[in-house]
Write a structure and sequence with these properties.
InterPro entries: Cas1 (IPR050646), Cas1_I-E (IPR033641), CRISPR-assoc_Cas1 (IPR002729), CRISPR-assoc_Cas1_C (IPR042206), CRISPR-assoc_Cas1_ECOLI (IPR019851), CRISPR-assoc_Cas1_N (IPR042211)
Number of domains: 2
EC number: 3.1.-.-
CATH topology of the largest domain: Four Helix Bundle (Hemerythrin (Met), subunit A)
Cofactor: Mg(2+); Mn(2+)
CATH architecture of the largest domain: Up-down Bundle
Helix content: 25-40%
Strand order of the largest sheet: 1-5-7-8
CATH class of the largest domain: Mainly Alpha
Shape: flat
Radius of gyration: 22 Å
Largest sheet: 4 strands, mixed
Protein name: CRISPR-associated endonuclease Cas1
Family: Belongs to the CRISPR-associated endonuclease Cas1 family.
Number of helices: 9
Distance between the termini: 43 Å
């Protein structure tokens, strides 16, 4: 049967998640498709964005997107995320780049085993404490060390920029109620959450199965984002708060975009997630996992069985 329309690209033709631009935030525009590009149109004109280079498209208030645009985004393995104004609220996201569930299975296995979950959490903290041994620390001890590290980071950037710092105090339902530094931190962290969320779903992991954070649909997003806040979002937020910005949200988004524009943060996300989840217990992992577009049947022997044909003959008995 002939299916009308442009055929989607094959998996090997897609740009790898870690090689794409980090994120693009759009608001108050109409998003459509022109050949292999996404177009964003408002009263100032039309901008073309190559779909193959996108990692995540943040759709803010006032955006209207066509069916053809979403088809192109999905075909190219990008993730569309619907967010609130200034990108500080998350509502929903689109499909993943991955076709395989093997990374998800490894994640579920690790988070379901107390010992393995603790080891992953310790590894996460060790990434933040270079040169320190976290192998024997309890979760309470790790949380204490992390709290002290974050407080020290805030004090250092407050001294560097001259921005007064008291505490992290914000209302997620009222962005404007916070002071300048808390507004900047909220906007910066929201951008980072979008980038990390896109990386997680793009490679087939679950944003909800966290190791340090738990009980939330984005627990693993918060886990991974915490690895980069001291390096990316906290210094950016203090820089913007110290500037003469009259639009903290927009200026912070642009500053975070400039900080991560080279795609290095996506590459690090992918590498760090794989390093955390693909332990020796999860078995050998092929680099083509993302490209695997196959369905198998589970068997209690531990070996997957090919799907797609009738296995009834295995159980036929002559009476």
């Amino acid at each position: 049967m002939n299916i009308p329309g442009v055929p989607p690209p094959q998996l090997p033709e897609l740009t790898r998640a870690q090689d794409r631009i980090s994120f693009l935030y759009l608001e108050r525009c109409v998003i459509h498709r022109d050949a292999n590009a996404i177009t964003a149109a408002d009263d100032k004109g039309v901008v073309h964005i190559p779909a193959a280079t996108l990692s995540v498209l943040l759709l803010g208030p006032g955006t209207s997107i066509t069916h053809q645009a979403m088809t192109l985004i999905a075909d190219n393995g990008a993730t569309a995320i619907w967010v609130g104004e200034r990108g500080v609220r998350y509502y929903a996201h689109g499909r993943s780049l991955a076709r395989s569930s093997r990374l998800l299975i490894a994640q579920a296995a690790a988070v379901s085993d107390r010992t393995r979950r603790l080891n992953v959490a310790r590894t996460m903290y060790s990434m933040r404490f270079p040169g320190e041994d976290t192998a024997r620390l309890t979760m309470q001890q790790l949380r204490g060390k992390e709290g002290a590290r974050v407080r020290r980071c805030y004090r250092e950037h407050s001294k560097r920029t001259g921005v007064p710092w008291n505490q992290r105090d914000y209302n997620p339902d009222d962005f404007a109620s916070g002071d300048r530094i808390n507004q900047a931190l909220s906007a910066a962290h929201a951008c980072l959450y979008g980038v990390v969320h896109a990386a997680i779903v793009a490679i087939g992991a679950s944003p909800g199965l966290g190791f340090v954070h738990t009980g939330h649909e984005r627990s693993f997003v918060y886990d991974i984002a915490d690895l980069y806040k001291a390096e990316v979002t906290i210094p950016v937020a203090f820089d913007i708060a110290a500037s003469d910005s009259t639009d903290i949200g927009a200026d912070t988004r642009r500053a975070v975009r400039d900080r991560v524009h080279d795609g290095a943060i996506l590459d690090r996300c992918v590498r760090d997630i794989r390093a955390l989840l693909l332990t020796p217990q999860s078995g050998a992992i092929e680099e083509d996992w993302l490209d695997a577009d196959e369905v198998n049947l589970w068997d209690e022997s531990g070996a997957d069985i090919p799907a797609g044909f009738n296995h009834g003959s295995e159980y036929e008995v002559d009476f």
